[in-house]
Design goal:
Order of helices and strands: HHHHHHHHHHHHHHHHHH
Number of helices: 18
Structural class: mainly alpha
Oligomer: single chain
CATH class of one domain: Mainly Alpha
Strand content: under 5%
CATH topology of one domain: Serine Threonine Protein Phosphatase 5, Tetratricopeptide repeat
Number of strands: 0
Helix content: over 70%
């Protein structure tokens, strides 16, 4: 709090010193054309980002926005002329104080004020872009796994995927069992075709799947492990396994919304192809989860109840479980067969 107050006082003094001798003279700003061009470019990029429909263009637009912000920050303040004698001295002193203030603020909290106008996701990506050069230099100097991971994380988050591949590849050289590096290299390899427009080779797809599966086995309780595993499995048409992984992700990270669209799509495909799942989705999934792994209600996959007990609870209800006495014999058989199948699968 004291540092903020001190900054305000210094800023006010510097502003007065600069403006007092120059208030009657407002000369032409030599950087005005470039500043106007950069501001227009910034507004145009923000407008495109706000109305973006093709998500494949987002990384490039965000990178260009970050570079535009940096270019704006690099421009000097608008030039002002002073008056002869004492006024000129005051103006030069004020410019010096303002320059010191700018340097001090640039490495503390002034960038946060600039980022406050951005959405949370955009601000995070801009910050990641700004950190990249220093993180890369540190990792290349120390060659430590933690530093490679920090560099890779910033590159991945800011959509600098070539740098992310390099950073995570070096991290795996120092620690071949590093889950984050394994799964992110896997997903980058799997989606490389979308970034380059070149179809992925079968052997590359298999290699990517192995990397992602290995990461999920090494770190099964990390939400991103299950998220990327679910995405990968859905690409290979393993809908049921993909749905289980993505529901596991939602359990590990209840606030995570990255998998919502894929989960909806998987449920629709599964329900259309399997009448038992379609019936289950309409009556039971809201409590027991789309794949029976549990939710508000207990997991059906962990159940040890006999078929007779399952039938009785389904028809008559028990505790918070509602009764479904209107199910036909055929519908009841479908549900019981499905629940017994899940018990065997676990």
């Amino acid at each position: 709090m004291l540092s903020v107050l001190l900054l305000i006082l210094i800023g006010g003094a510097a502003l007065w010193l600069v403006l007092e001798p120059l208030r009657r003279a407002a000369p032409e700003d030599p950087d005005a054309p470039e500043r106007a061009r950069l501001l227009a470019e910034r507004d145009r990029l923000y407008g495109e980002l706000n109305g973006l429909e093709d998500e494949a263009r987002r990384p490039d637009l965000e990178r260009r926005a970050a570079l535009t912000l940096r270019a704006l920050d690099a421009l000097p303040p608008p030039a002002r002329t002073g008056q002869p004698g004492r006024s000129r001295t005051l103006a030069l002193t004020g410019v010096g104080v303002a320059a010191l203030l700018t340097v001090a603020g640039a490495v503390t909290f002034i960038p946060r004020w600039q980022l406050a106008s951005l959405e949370a996701g955009e601000a995070s990506k801009v910050q990641a872009v700004l950190k990249l050069p220093a993180l890369k230099a540190t990792a290349q100097r120390t060659e430590r796994s933690a530093d490679y991971l920090a560099w890779g994380r910033a590159a991945f988050d800011s959509a600098n995927y070539d740098q992310a591949v390099s950073a995570y590849g070096n991290a795996l050289k120092t620690d071949p069992r590093q889950p984050e590096a394994l799964r992110r290299l896997g997903i980058l390899l799997l989606t490389r075709g979308e970034q380059t427009g070149t179809p992925i080779k079968a052997e590359d797809a298999e290699r990517a799947a192995l990397l992602i599966r290995a990461a999920a086995q090494l770190a099964p309780d990390e939400p991103e492990s299950q998220l990327l595993l679910g995405f990968a499995l859905s690409r290979f048409g393993q809908d049921q396994e993909a749905l289980q992984a993505l529901e596991r992700y939602r359990t590990l990270d209840p606030a995570g919304r990255d998998a919502d669209d894929v989960i909806t799509s998987l449920r629709a495909r599964l329900n259309q192809s399997d009448p038992a799942l379609k019936l289950y989705a309409g009556s039971c999934a809201s409590c027991h989860g789309a794949s029976g792994a549990g939710g508000i209600g207990p997991s059906l996959r962990d159940s040890t109840l006999s078929r007779a007990a399952l039938r009785s609870i389904t028809v008559n209800g028990k505790g918070a479980m509602p009764a479904y006495p209107r199910l036909t014999d055929a519908e009841l058989k479908l549900l019981l067969d499905l629940m017994e199948k899940w018990q065997k699968e676990g």
